[in-house]
Amino acid sequence: MRTWEENIRKVVPYTPGEQPNQPDMIKLNTNENPYPPAPGVERALKEMSADTLRLYPDPTAGILVEAIAEAYHVEKDQVFVGVGSDDVLAMCFLTFFNGKKPILFPDITYSFYDVWAELFRIPYERPALDENFRIRKEDYFRENGGVVFPNPNAPTGVEMPLEDIEEILNHNQDAIVIVDEAYVDFGVQSALPLIDKYDNLLVVQTFSKSRSLAGMRIGYVFGNPVLIKYLNDVKYSFNSYTMNTAAIAAGVAAVRDKEYFEKTCSKIIETREWTKAELKKLGFSFGDSKSNFIFAAHETCPAEELFRALREQHIYVRYFPKGRTHNHLRITIGTREEMEKFLSFLKEYLKNR
Ligand SMILES: *Cc1c(COP(=O)(O)O)cnc(C)c1O
After folding, report:
1. Atom of ligand 1 nearest to the CA of 150
2. At what angle do helices 225-235 and 84-96 cross, to 10 degrees?
3. pLDDT digits over 177-196, tens only?
4. Which atom in ligand 1 lies closest to the alpha carbon of residue 153?
5. Residue 236 to residue 6: CA distance in whole angstroms
6. β-pairing verdict for 284-286 and 201-206
């Protein structure tokens, strides 16, 4: 082995869901929104002159921060934006998880957390979800270097009530607690109102799911101005121009259109509830998802078999073969028509098997 090889920062990377490109596909594998972004987004992009790209973007992404602050009734200095919430979460890990005590996150959760912990050499422990795939709040009542979990959790879709989050905050006044609210808009109470009461709380959200802008890469976090300042210090020590000109313009247009946002979110919630009922009839079981996906296991047919059979029909869902999740499929909620096609294939397949 060459000496320089010893010095390489080796890490086992996160595996994103595949992005196949079949014209007839039904893509239910990466929790994207089946509806287009707010109409103002297309207008904003069309009105953008290529000449503006000569200039660096505003490093503070000021108009986007302001539009988010206005939409959520917080102050500008309580908002930090980044290139998707992946970037925002990575910056939070780098900034706040810098001690010797292990940070805590569930054994079954967003699979990027352990990757960042490994990358940044942060010690971590992963308390197990209970047998119903629920987070046990008591697991987070012990000494730690920080806490992070999604609400609703991913890939289970299960919600943690706000009272339980507040209990976790009360037990962790000396550590930073990050609530990853990637799916909060699909029916969960946000922890945002707690940021004024708890100066150790960070609430991360994204434009990728509920605002149909996964391709633009916009994420943000709400927190105490002191925490936001520390995040900015790290950001400006890494890359000042994270948000590009097009993303800033698209983000502003998306966040200003509350009506469209609420309309598309409720369509997805409605389709989700209908899909749940249909899946139950077909012999699937799952926790009560409050997100734009359902994490389901079938009573007789193994998840891997269904995953492959669906794939042959160009219906893509997500399958996590390792560990306790090996018999579950994570099924994103698409349009009603997509879910009808998906379900009618499943029905035929299970009948003839
Ligand atoms: C999708 C997702 C993210 C990241 O989304 P971005 O596209 O980077 O904003 C973060 N956390 C969870 C739990 C997610 O599911």
Report:
1. 13
2. 100
3. 999 999 999 999 999 999 99
4. 13
5. 29
6. unpaired
